[in-house]
Design brief:
By secondary structure, the chain is of the alpha+beta class. The chain has two domains: 6-151, Jelly Rolls; 162-263, Homeodomain-like (Arc Repressor Mutant, subunit A, Orthogonal Bundle), CATH 1.10.10.60. Helix content is 44%, strand content 24%. It has ten helices and eight strands. Strands 1, 2, 3, 4, 5, 6, 7 and 8 form an eight-stranded antiparallel sheet that branches.
C-alpha cells in the first residue's frame, strides 16, 4: 500500500528559504542604525565582538557562538562599542511566491550552535563549490528549524483570496511610490474598501504599507545589486527627488542610501 498526503506534497514543493543578501562582516563603530519593519528576516551567526541590539529600550548583547533570528517586520536598532564579526543572511521563509512564514513570528529567537559550527558555516559561505552551497543552505534550514522547535513556533499558511493575489501581482509589476490603492483596486475590478479590508485581514498590513515596503525593498535591491545612482533610483521608483528618497530610505533601513550601499546594512 502506498500512502501520500497532498497537503504535505504541496508544502514540500512550495516552502523554501530565499536568501536576499549574505556575507561575513567585520565591522567597527560604523555598524549602527535602526531597522524599521524590515521586509525580510535577519539571521546572524556571531563570531566575536561586542555587538548589541536594542528593542524597546532594552539592550541585548550579541554573544559569540550564538545564532539570532530577527523575523520579517521586526523593528530594532543595532550597534557595537568597538567591533562586531558575524555571518549574516537576509532571508524570507516563503510559501509560494508571496507568503513569508516569518511574518507570523512576533519576537526574535536565539540558540547556541557554538563557534565550531559557525566557523564551518563561514568556510562554506566562502566556497565556490555547488556542493558547499547546498550544504550551507541545508545548515540555514537546520538553524531555522532549531529556533522554531526551541520557541515552539508553528508557521501558519494563509490562503489568499483572488483579489489579494491580483493586488500583490499588480504592485510588484508597477513598483512606484506614486501607485495608489485606488489604481490597484480598479485593476482588479473590486471596490477600494473591500480590497483594503481583505488585504489587511490576509496580509496583516495595509495595502498602502505593502506598496511602500515593496518600493523600498526594490530600492534596496537596486542599491545592492546595480550601479544606478541614487538619483536614478529615486526617479525610477517615483520619489520625486533624491532628498525625499534618502529620508524615506533612512527611516526604513537606518542608513542613507549611499552609506547602505557602502556597508550593505548587515
Amino acid at each position: 500500500m502506498i500512502q501520500t498526503n497532498e497537503m504535505t506534497q504541496e508544502y514540500l514543493n512550495n516552502i523554501r528559504i530565499r536568501i536576499f543578501h549574505y556575507g561575513y562582516a567585520s565591522m567597527g563603530k560604523e555598524w549602527v542604525g535602526s531597522i524599521v519593519s524590515p521586509p525580510y528576516g535577519r539571521l546572524y551567526y556571531i563570531c566575536g565582538g561586542d555587538g548589541y541590539i536594542r528593542v524597546n529600550e532594552k539592550e541585548v548583547l550579541l554573544k559569540q557562538g550564538h545564532c539570532y533570528l530577527f523575523p520579517s517586520g521586526y523593528s530594532f536598532s543595532h550597534g557595537c562599542t568597538t567591533s562586531v564579526q558575524q555571518l549574516y543572511f537576509h532571508i524570507k521563509l516563503l510559501f509560494g511566491e508571496d507568503t513569508d512564514l516569518l511574518q507570523g513570528c512576533s519576537e526574535w529567537m536565539e540558540y547556541t550552535p557554538g563557534m565550531g559550527q559557525i566557523q564551518r558555516l563561514v568556510d562554506l559561505s566562502q566556497s565556490e563549490e555547488v556542493y558547499d552551497s547546498l550544504r550551507l543552505r541545508q545548515e540555514i534550514y537546520a538553524s531555522v528549524l532549531e529556533l522554531f522547535q526551541k520557541y515552539e513556533f508553528h508557521p501558519r499558511i494563509v490562503q489568499f483570496s483572488p483579489c489579494v493575489l491580483q493586488a500583490i501581482a499588480y504592485v510588484k509589476s508597477h513598483l512606484s511610490l506614486r501607485l495608489h490603492v485606488s489604481e490597484v483596486a480598479a485593476h482588479g475590478y473590486v471596490s477600494e474598501s473591500m480590497l483594503t479590508k481583505r488585504f489587511r485581514a490576509e496580509m496583516g498590513i495595509s495595502l498602502g504599507r505593502y506598496i511602500d515596503d515593496m518600493v523600498l525593498l526594490e530600492a534596496e535591491r537596486l542599491l545592492s545589486h546595480t550601479s544606478r545612482t541614487v538619483q536614478q533610483i529615486s526617479e525610477q521608483l517615483g520619489f520625486g527627488d533624491p532628498f525625499y528618497f534618502s529620508r524615506r530610505f533612512k527611516s526604513k533601513y537606518g542608513s542613507s542610501p549611499r552609506l547602505y550601499r557602502k556597508i550593505k546594512s548587515v
